[in-house]
Amino acid sequence: MHPRVKPALRRAWRDRQSVQFGVTSAHAVLVGPVDTTTGTLLDLLDGTRGMALLRKEGTALGLPDGQVDTVVGRLTAAGLIDDVRAGGPAVDALLERPGELDRLRPDLASLSVVHPEPGGGARRLAARRSMRVQVRGAGRVGATVASVLAASGVGRVDVLDGGRVEPWDVAPGGAPADAVGIRRDAAARQAVRRWAPGRGPRVGAGRTGSGAAESGGGAGVVEAGGNGEPGLSLVVVVPRDGLGVYAPDPVAAEPWMGSGVPHLYAGVVEATGVVGPLVLPGVTACSGCVARAREELDPGWRRMLAQWRSGRRAEVGACDVALATAVAGMAAAHALAFLDGELPSSTGARWETALPLLQWRRMSLGAHRDCCCGAGREAPGEVEGDVAAGDLIPHDTMAG
Questions:
Q1: Which secondary-structure segment (H or E) carries 351?
Q2: Which of 37, 240, 284, 355 has its CA 20 to 30 A from that of 198?
Q3: Nearest 5°: phi and psi at 6?
Q4: Domain residues for 95?
Q5: pLDDT in tens, 121-139
Q6: Contacts of residue 74, Cβ cutoff 8 Å, sequence gap at least 6
Q7: Beta-bridge partners for 19
Q8: Same domain for 343 and 364?
C-alpha cells in the first residue's frame, strides 16, 4: 500500500488539535486530536512511500511504534486515504495512457471524493472504459449527453437518430455549426470521437465491464452484443420531441424491458426539462406504470395524448440552449452515477424543472400493480410521493 491523503479535499487546521479535510458539508471530515508530529506525518502521505518506509519515517519523527499504522488506519476508515496502485489491472492499463489520464484527472479526483475506499475512484474510472451506452436521440439534449458521457471516460457511446442536423440542433457540446446538413447520428458520433479522452479497450462479448459489477451493486452489462461487442450497460432515451420523455411510450420500451436493459429518460418539452425515470426492468416503475397511473388520475389524458402523438408537430420545439444543456448535464451525471454502481435519485422517479424559475422538483413514481413489467405486483397501484392529480392537470382549468 502507498497511502495518499486525498488531494481533492482541501486541508485546514480548525484549531491546534484538529484538522478538517474538505470544505463542503457533503464530504468534509474532521480529524482529531492531531499533534504537531502527526501533522508532519500527514505531509508524508503523498503516495510515494510504502508502509515500511512510512514506519521508518515515523520512528525518525519520534512517533511510538504502531502509531503510523494507527493514523493510516483511522484516515482510511474516514475515507481520506487513496491508493491508485490498488486498482488492479484495469487501472494499471489506464495509468499506462498518460494522455488519456490527464484528460480525466478532474473526474478521478471527483470519484475519489465520492467513493471512500482506497483506489475506489480509479477502479470506477477504469471500468468506464469497457462500458457501452446507447443514446437514442441526437438533438440539442441527446448529442450533448453523448459527448459528456464520452468525455467522462465511457469507452463506447452509440448514438441513434434519423434525419439531418438542422440549424436549431446546434449546441455547445453537441452538433457544431459546421455539421448542419449532415446526418444527425453521424454528427453525434463525430462529437463523441472529438470529446473522448481516448479509445476504450476491446471487450469480449458478455464481459461485465461496469464499476457497479466490480463494486457490488447497480449496473452491469446485461445484453451481449454481436461480433465481440460489449453488452449494453444503459440506454439513455433522449428523443428530440420531448413528449416522448414527458409521456414515454411503453411500446417503444418493450425491447429494453424484455432484455432487462436499464434505461433513463431525459429531454425538454415546451420549456420544461425532464430527467428520469431511470428504469430497472422488473424492479422500478417503467413507462407502462407511469402511463397507467396518469390515466387513472386524469381520465382525459389518453385522449389528449393520442392527439398530441398523431397531430402535426411544431417545426421547432421550445428547447432553449441553456435549459437543454442543464438537462443534458444532469442526465449524464445520473447515468454516470448508475454506471459507477450507485442508484441516482432518478431511479423510479422523475426530476422536472420549467423556465423561467428553474426550480428542480422530484416526483416519486410508484410501480403499478397491473403493469406487465411485474415491478408493482405487491406495490400500490398509483403514483406515490409528490405527484397528485393537480400536478397532471393545469391548475387554471381545475374547479374547486
A1: strand 349-354
A2: 240
A3: -55, 115
A4: 85-127
A5: 999 999 999 999 999 999 9
A6: 31
A7: 13, 31
A8: yes
